[in-house]
Sequence to fold (271 residues):
Amino acid sequence: MSLSEEDEDIEINVDSFTYESDEEELQTLLPKEVALLLKIETLKQEIRELEEQEQSKALESSAACLEDAEINLEEYEAPKWCIPIKANVMDFEWDRLASECQFDVIIMDPPWQLASNTPTRGVAITYHQLPDVCIEELPIEKLQTNGFIFIWVINNKYVKAFDLMEKWGYSYVDDITWVKQTVNRRMAKGHGYYLQHAKETCLVGRKGRDPAGCQHNVMSDVIFSERRGQSQKPEELYEMVEALVPNGKYLEIFGRKNNLRDYWVTIGNEL
Fold:
């Protein structure tokens, strides 16, 4: 049986309708495909970021382990022109030193005694602490006629540090903030009682007149520097001191071997 012309027209119209339906469905699926591709790319990016974070944590963990490790004396080489004096600062012959030299700049990082001898929150104390009364007895006033003192402080010792400055004959003139960084230049957050600590503060006092050759307006009062060994302070501080008083006479008290520096006298019981 042959189709009439009318039947042929109907058949053609059906094919056309089927084609148009497929086209509409394709147009509907394309945006979904694009959305899925974008979602896949987002997930890939998140995976990459997670991998980078894990790698960063591993590096920071390794750095923390290195930071807590003590320097091997057999491998350590002190700077050629440094003057290390291994001694107990509590019974050191300060009068003899004072008679031989008056210093332009004194740096001290007192082993402040914390509220508890067995601190929690992950704080590890690997050095002997001194009560405030012992630190007060140091005859700092004998070591300097004119010059500056730099005192590292912890949060609950600010008032005591200002009292010490007054007792030893200094006036507070400035302070320095050290923002600690990790090996990959991120902020190195430590443990604190209320807040996490990522900085240390060094108070600056002046006694008498400015020492000879003193320079003003040098460097910045904020140091961004990597956290290194136990109690090791940033080199930028020493550079700042040497820029403030070029070719001066420098003394560090409570020093450690990892802070020894050329042309500095360093006194401590861990040298």
Notes: The chain is about 35% helix and 20% strand. Residues 61-71, 117-127 have pLDDT under 50 and may be disordered.
